[in-house]
Design goal:
The complex is a heterodimer of chains A (299) and B (348). By secondary structure, chain A is an alpha+beta fold. Chain A has 10 helices and 8 strands. In chain B, the strands form 2 sheets. In chain B, strands 3-4-7-5-6 form a 5-stranded mixed beta sheet. The longest helix of chain B is centred in the middle third of the chain and has 20 residues. The chains are: A alpha+beta (299), B alpha+beta (348).
Chain lengths: 299, 348
């Protein structure tokens, strides 16, 4: 959060300065009202809204990189905040009638802020559509950030089960492919924490590239990944999984010292049968994967 | 029964004893969390530790502080695999002579001996109790000094640690089977991926077993010389207690399983008044009756299901006056009658 806020320090400073300037101007030109005259309901209503706007602004700026969309959103919220700030100040300070800027700050900034914020939200909407395209293979039509893996930025097993259940209720055939990076169990010992996590992440990137647009990839557990292939027969899924295996085994992954890391990939494709739920399907896929693993060990 | 390896060492360590170097196991857990961009302040909150002190290498933590660190990690990590990943890194580790011994152990038997003797350093919270019968070698995991809610996390870590270490040293996956005292978690994919598919939940005991033939299978990268030198160095070090307090009480009760001990008798053995003993157990997140029940349950499960004893034999062995009393007690220990428990084991 703070790393992002530092990017926007100028905007924040400008708004703080304007708010401070209007406070000074009001104090210089006006008189402080006696407490009995203050309408506390107004103070709570207008002041509270102002505080909420300031919090929104910090949350938005704290989570966004700099850029046009951020500028519009900040300016919009900033203007709205200034309008409410001046409103709240008026509750405490009585200004002589001819102060044009007081009226201006109160009444003009509000609509300007609204226009800026609306424009900003429109640009944000367009930006979000582009980002969705980037995230498509990771989340398809359902987003639930608390179920995502903090290592891979992919959904975890719980997310996978939820998504899979949605697919299973539709009539089209669904296939799940479990992919295991067999050598990855030793990465942690061989290359250390940071490197092994980077290698897993890069493997996931390679898989993302090979998948089709409608496919969904999740991190199942450890070095096992699950791929949901909607509207796909078992044979098609096997071809896809084989291609994925080729891509992973032929891709030259490297450690930071330049050492080549070879991959060995094991996978199993399970076509959902009628009436099967997500957990049962995943159990069956795990059984298949383990059987294949044992068969390779014997061979 | 099972007395050969149960020799009780004098003394024990307690949950607030700060003896474990913070850069050993706690350091590894910290590394895993820091690698996920979680700040060290958050990870160390409530542990009374500071990252700079840990880096200086002089900081020591108590089992209680390590438990707090685990609790923080569980809360902060968004993925459910923290315990398993920690387990993968745990052994042989960098914990001085104990790690050197693990590194150069010639086979599983030697490794298990080292793990048992050096448990204070290698596995301070959850300790292994190793015993064999004609076919199998069993590694049972015991709470050393009060794990409470972090027990499951530590069981996951310890079992992964032994599997991963033995796999690495022997260059092949060993046919471990796993039993857990707790019910099957709703999502068991982490267990299947990290441990394998022979998992039995809700057994009443946390135990691993492997056919005995694997104990003597030589490990390729062992060095008998290095092992013996490390063992010799270790022998010159002053002897210290290897058992955690709860474990020491458990072992004592197990040793006297045929003459059920009262709280007062046990307290006397440990050289304190009943009141002090009770308080101490409470601080270790347990109480006398619980430990007594655990000891009898674990022994009963072994006798019933592995040795194939009848209820009558077992009731007599445990000094019960009649069968009804025994059945009732057994049910209190694990929620099942001996018959139901037998049914469950038949399915395995």
């Amino acid at each position: 959060m703070f790393a992002h806020l530092i990017l926007h320090r100028r905007k924040l400073l400008l708004i703080a300065l304007l708010a401070f300037a209007s406070l000074l101007a009001s104090l210089w030109l006006g008189d402080i009202k006696p407490l009995a005259e203050v309408d506390w309901l107004d103070v709570v209503g207008e002041g509270g809204t102002g505080v909420a706007l300031a919090v929104w602004m910090v949350l938005i700026l704290g989570s966004r990189p700099a850029g046009r969309v951020t500028d519009w959103l900040t300016l919009g919220l900033g203007f709205l905040f200034l309008a409410l700030w001046q409103d709240t100040l008026d509750e405490f300070i009585r200004l002589p009638g001819e102060q044009w800027w007081d009226q201006w700050l109160e009444s003009i900034t509000m609509p300007i802020g609204m226009v800026l914020l609306t424009t900003g939200l429109y640009f944000w909407h367009q930006e979000q559509l582009i980002l969705n395209r980037h995230l498509r293979k990771r989340e398809q039509l359902f987003r639930e950030h608390h179920l995502s893996d903090d290592l891979m930025y992919l959904g975890q097993a719980d997310y996978l089960r939820q998504q899979l259940q949605n697919y299973l209720t539709s009539a089209q055939p669904v296939t799940v492919v479990l992919v295991e990076l067999s050598d990855a169990v030793h990465w942690l010992r061989r290359y250390g924490i940071a490197e092994s996590e980077r290698l897993l992440r890069e493997s996931a990137e390679v898989m993302l590239i090979t998948l089709r647009n409608q496919d969904l990839i999740c991190r199942y557990a450890g070095s096992r990944f699950a791929i949901v292939l909607p509207d796909t027969t078992h044979a098609q899924a096997c071809t896809l999984a084989w291609e994925l295996q080729q891509a992973l085994e032929h891709c030259a992954f490297r450690t930071h010292t330049g050492e080549r890391v070879f991959q060995q990939v094991n996978w199993f494709a399970a076509l959902a049968t009628a009436g099967e739920d997500a957990s049962a399907l995943l159990q069956r896929a795990s059984d298949g994967l383990e059987a294949r693993h044992d068969a390779q060990a014997v061979a | 029964m099972m007395t050969a390896s149960d020799a009780i060492t004098e003394g024990w360590y307690e949950q607030d004893e700060r003896y474990l170097p913070a850069h050993h196991q706690p350091g590894l857990l910290l590394d895993l969390l820091l690698a996920r961009d979680i700040s060290s302040h958050k990870v160390l909150r409530g542990t009374g530790l500071f990252y700079d002190d840990i880096l200086a290498g002089h900081s020591r933590v108590s089992p209680q502080q390590l438990r707090q660190l685990i609790a923080n990690g569980e809360k902060l990590s968004a993925t459910a695999d923290l315990s398993f990943r920690w387990g993968q890194l745990l052994w042989p580790g960098h914990y001085g002579l104990a790690s050197q011994l693990l590194q150069h152990a010639g086979n599983l038997q030697q490794a298990l001996d080292v793990l048992t003797r050096q448990r204070r350093w290698l596995s301070p919270l959850l300790v292994p109790r190793v015993f064999c019968d004609r076919q199998y070698c069993y590694v049972q995991w015991l709470d050393a000094c009060g794990l409470g809610e972090q027990k499951r996390f530590m069981v996951e870590t310890a079992m992964t640690a032994l599997s991963s270490y033995s796999r690495w040293q022997s260059r092949q996956q060993l046919p471990w089977e796993y039993g857990f005292s707790y019910a099957q978690p709703r999502a068991d994919e982490q267990y299947r991926t990290h441990l394998g598919s022979t998992l039995y939940f809700d057994l009443g005991v946390d135990v691993m077993r492997i056919p005995k033939t694997w104990l003597q299978e030589p490990w390729p990268q062992a060095s008998a010389t290095a092992f013996r030198v490390a063992a010799r160095h270790l022998n010159t070090e002053p002897e210290i207690a290897e058992s955690g307090f709860s474990e020491a009480v458990y072992q004592h009760l197990l040793h006297h399983i045929q003459q059920p001990l009262s709280l007062a008798e046990t307290a006397e053995h440990f050289g304190m008044s009943s009141a002090t003993f009770k308080r101490k157990l409470q601080r270790h997140d347990t109480h006398f009756q619980h430990l007594q029940d655990q000891v009898r349950l674990h022994a009963s499960l072994y006798c019933l299901h592995i040795l194939g004893w009848s209820n009558e034999q077992l009731a007599q062995y445990l000094q019960f006056n009649d069968l009804t009393n025994f059945r009732r007690a057994f049910r209190r220990w694990c929620g099942r009658t001996p018959g139901e428990s037998r049914q469950l084991f038949l399915q395995i």
